[in-house]
Amino acid sequence: MRRTRPIIWIALLVLAVGVTTMLAGCGTSGTGTTGTATGTPAAGGLKIALLLPETKTARYETQDRPLFEAKVKELAPDAQILYSNANQDATEQQAQADAALTNGAQVLVLDPVDSASAASIVAKAKAKNVPVISYDRLILNADVDYYVSFDNEKVGTLQGQALLDKITKDGNAGKTIVMINGSPTDNNATLFKKGAHSILDGKVKIGAEYDTPDWSPDKAQTEMDQAITKLGKNGFVAVYCANDGTCGGAIAAMKGAGIDPKKRPSTGQDAELAGIQRVLLGEQFITIYKAIKAEANTAAELAVALAKGSGVPSSMTLSKVNNGKIDVPSVLLNPVVVTKETIKDTVVADGFWTAAQIMNTPELVAAGQLVGLK
Ligand code: BGC
What we know:
The chain is of the alpha/beta class.
């Protein structure tokens, strides 16, 4: 982590002061085969499983996985990472978790496709005395050891507030909007939706609202097509989208219907490259930056500590989040709104994207120069 950078400081505030909790229930050594393994196996090395939920959202393969693997390798050079991605399929994720346990994983870092049904994965891991870190999405009603994520309800309130302020500024207070939420099986989607509704309800009319199966951008596009058919091309002033992927789908639908997305402010999250580029061009109003490096690093530090049977790093602050069964010791990082004007001081200052990565067409270069990117 680069301590001089502002966003990282915000994240560090969450981590900096607090109680050190010692670990209970440390993992046992694995002896299994290496069928799903990536990385270099080493005799006697740690075995850590990372199970991510999908590939249609850019963050998992471009950020979470490489950042997590790099941190584990830094802390435990001979560790083996058993990696799998469930491609939005909860049944597939069950099979991948079974394989990781069979192959001797000493800890599971699990980002569940389905926050509820993943409880059975936790039960199987517990039966083998393998600890589970609930990564980014909370696993509900299960004996999870740790939860590492962001303040997800705050993500929703930040999105809702930014959109409401813009609608009001545009002179459209009280008018109709469309809401495109995330996957109904993702507890985070529930929290984003709750946060956004807490700001928007009573202040605008919600003309059409959808939960998007699997968070698929293509399904979000179909939902937006339906909203345009229902409300008419001029029947809505803004679009709440839960993430950048779904916002990309909604914007494609608007363009397909001949609607200028620059005149219909929309939201997202993840600060994925395509999202940041749309924000810079004014096609998407805001995104939410979540410092995935801090999240992946924290999960990696905890995973290595659990696999080694050592204590939680003393710098780590743990709060409690109830998952319906227990209070889960948790690290919750802080999300940040990104507008066109703040791209430079947020994602670029934090090293998440370089100006050159963002400004990769003449149109983006011109737009970037107007907001001080070079
Ligand atoms: C994550 C988001 C992501 C979404 C779709 C959520 O649980 O917090 O960052 O965009 O899932 O994968």
